[in-house]
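Below is a filled-in request sheet from our internal design queue. Each sheet records the structural input a requester submitted and the sequence that came back. We keep these sheets so that new team members can see what a complete request looks like end to end.

REQUESTER: design group, bay 2
PRIORITY: normal
MODE: inverse folding
CHAIN LENGTH: 170
BACKBONE (tokenized):
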């Protein structure tokens, strides 16, 4: 129940967490979640037809890799990730025909990485929290108002309601 949750599920040092993931495919998934706010099922299987190439980030103008996802309720969306993360997904698809990870094994990798990086395990969803908080601040740093940042982050997370996104900003 989101209304009763107090606090944050974000990692204290998400970059250290991602770097501590030893499995390459799991590290790529963690990077994708942290960089785009994707849900675990949105990064656990990516096919070639989902790859959209590179485009500028609408906020920063930096070049990002883009892939399409089917989010909650079948809603289609796009996720932007760092070029290196995109290249790793693309390379895996070229080698194996698709990028696919076992979600349970990935969750285990995150638990091990959290311990190795001296953090409490927050699961893969914690990386969505980090994305939301950092992206919100980034939008405001580029001149966006509170409401503009909230709307943009809500869209990027695939939320229909801004009040859900506000929970991530704690």
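RETURNED SEQUENCE:
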């Amino acid at each position: 129940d989101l209304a009763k949750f107090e606090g944050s599920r974000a990692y204290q040092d998400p970059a250290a967490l991602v770097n501590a993931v030893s499995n390459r495919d799991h590290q790529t998934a963690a990077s994708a979640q942290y960089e785009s706010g994707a849900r675990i099922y949105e990064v656990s299987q990516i096919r070639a037809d989902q790859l959209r190439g590179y485009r500028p980030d609408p906020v920063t103008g930096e070049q990002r890799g883009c892939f399409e996802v089917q989010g909650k309720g079948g809603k289609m969306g796009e996720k932007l990730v760092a070029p290196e993360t995109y290249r790793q997904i693309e390379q895996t698809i070229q080698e194996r025909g698709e990028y696919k990870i076992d979600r349970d094994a990935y969750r285990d990798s995150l638990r091990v990485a959290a311990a190795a990086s001296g953090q409490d395990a927050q699961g893969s969803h914690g990386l969505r929290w980090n994305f939301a908080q950092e992206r919100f601040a980034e939008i405001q740093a580029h001149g966006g108002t509170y409401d503009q940042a909230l709307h943009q982050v809500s869209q990027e997370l695939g939320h229909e309601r801004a009040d859900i996104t506000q929970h991530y900003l704690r």
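SHEET NOTES:
- The mean pLDDT is 93.
- Strands lie at 45-47, 51-56, 63-70, 76-81, 98-100.
FILED BY: M.R.
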